[in-house]
Amino acid sequence: MRAKLAGASLVILASLLAGSAAADTAAITEIRQDSNSHSTRLVVACTGPVAYTYYSPDPLTLVVDIPEVDPSKVPSRISVGTREVESVRVTSMVRADGRSLARVEVRLASLVEPLGFDSIWTVEHHFTPYTMVPNSLQFLTFMAGRRMGYNVGGGLVAFTALVGGVVGVVTAGLLEYDTLRRLGVVPMFAVGAIEEAAKLLAPLVLLLFVRPRRTADGLLLGVASGAGFAVLETMGYAFVALIKSQGDLAVVDGVLFVRGVLSPAAHMAWTGLTAAALWTAAEHRFHPRSLARFAGVYVVAVVLHTIWDSIGDLAGYAVLSGVSLTLLTVTAHRATRENRALAARSRSRR
Questions:
Q1: What is the pTM of this model?
Q2: Paired sense of beta strands 85-94 and 100-108, if any
Q3: Which of 96, 104, 213, 337 could pair with 64 in a Cys bridge, judged by C-beta atoms 3.0 to 4.6 Å apart?
Q4: What is the pLDDT of residues 220-252, one digit of tens each?
């Protein structure tokens, strides 16, 4: 049987071993791997003739159902780890009619990033006579969720956004109030330094629990913490605007719209940069050079924050947004290259 899914060539064969075993007592004796530089071949060896069906529930999974076969002699999970195949899972099931069923699930590897590509494109199925992608949007959404650059899940990201935002806003508010009480004024640079440090508290604490530490994870959690901070700060600004305007919702809408559009290029980008540098330093066991790089990135974020707070026109915000998002994009691409290098080293050790 030959299948080709998500650009990965895969061949699965059922090997029939000579013997006197009856068909209803057939068993899977071995699942072996035959790989070369171009493809991966999986051979399912059985003690007798078998029938099977196969289908693909998603672009990266191939399911083979073999009725009346005992799979107990092979492991329930086999790690393959080639460029085409990630792993194989074998499950013993009972069908509705009471007959046994061995299910072999082959997880194909996502080859977009490991092969060095920066993007994936799909065809539009309405204008081609045949395609394996009946829904282009659904396929691209699925592939976006399969990116292998992050080791943290959605739950941790949401937790970081909530806790990081609350802790960051409360901490920054207390420190800025204390600075105002002591000095009578809060310098713009001090505001930037306080808020950038406060937003880093959640990613810093998570360093103690998340393993392995990767730059991409720090960047993602930093963006999440910055987003939580921006949401709560925006609510505060909107409330102040509502009071000062004596209930004018048009003024409140303006504040919410402008801050909502600019937040990805402000708090989210700056904290993403500093958290990525912090996690990179942790990944290198806080080597002096990596610590110096983190300090430099933190100073850059504070300077951008200070300039942002010192100007008041959209043209200036647009320029700073471009600078901030460019730095964030460069950092994300570097993190992607690091992940590719790690994946390549991991494959070479196998």
A1: 0.62
A2: antiparallel
A3: 104
A4: 899 999 999 999 999 999 999 999 999 999 999
